[in-house]
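haha ok so turns out i had the wrong file open the whole time. this is the CORRECT one, sorry everyone. sequence first:
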Amino acid sequence: MARATDDEDEGGDFRNKDLLAAIVESSHDAIVSKDLNGIVTTWNRGAQLVFGYSAEEMVGQSVLKLIPDGRQDEETMILGRIRRGERVDHYETVRQRKDGEVIHVSLTISPIRGAGGRIVGASKIARDVTDRYRAEQTQRLLMRELNHRSKNLLAIVEAMVRKTASSTPPAELVGRVSQRLQALSAIQNLLVYGDWRGVDLRTLATTQVNPYADGRIALSGPQVMLVPAAAQALGLAFHELATNALRHGALAAPDGCVEISWAFVERDGRPLFEMTWHEASGPEVAAPTGTSFGTTILKRATEEALNGAVSLDYDAAGLRWTLTAPAHEIRA
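then structure:
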């Protein structure tokens, strides 16, 4: 085998150095070198993309320029490890760009050795992981929110089953519980489809009432996107009003009908939301003798959820249920 000449060895060396320099310069990661005092000696194009400073602005400057107040000790720790010949792998921290933005970075730092193996500086690769960090934070927030909402939902289900069981004949218990769970499920579906940002009031009323009203429902009011808490409270109220009307009220009669109307008004300088459920052309109604789960939902639970006031008028001509609540408790 022929042996390469010294000139050929040197040429290959130059080509390798050129290739390495091209790789470093084209990298989207920040690749920086510094001496043992933290003074920047090289700065690639990726470093400019990540930190906003040009090579002319950073070479000869302290790397502390990139470190936010309160984190200066990190550089002392890193240089101490480098002096001991240690490598720092995937160290996640924050750094400050030229425009003042604080970004999350993952650092890998290695010693640079000179003649005789003496450590003369450090090379650093910094990768901007801000998007990943934000995605992880969002995921954690969503998981905490999901856990909170799941606990609330289970508490509602537990109260629903317990109260229904205490006020319902055994023969009707399974059917009543099943209907209420289906109503709650329909509300959750609307909230999920709306990404938990809100639910359209007209859609909510139609979804909850139409299965029992057979088209005998009239809706009147402006378009309103309900906050999740209002959607849940009003959805359960609509279900109870509709099923009660089907058993004892207007929807139990062939010509009976229901009108649901709502509006935003201002009283004494306060923006309020007012809603009325009004039954007509049904049998005479009378106030219940006890407190059922349905009555609890229609009055106390709705008032507490919406910080409002509810009135139930058992007029012989038809039930009238009226809600008044602060507008900000209702509108998304």
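The radius of gyration is 35 Å.
again sry for the mixup
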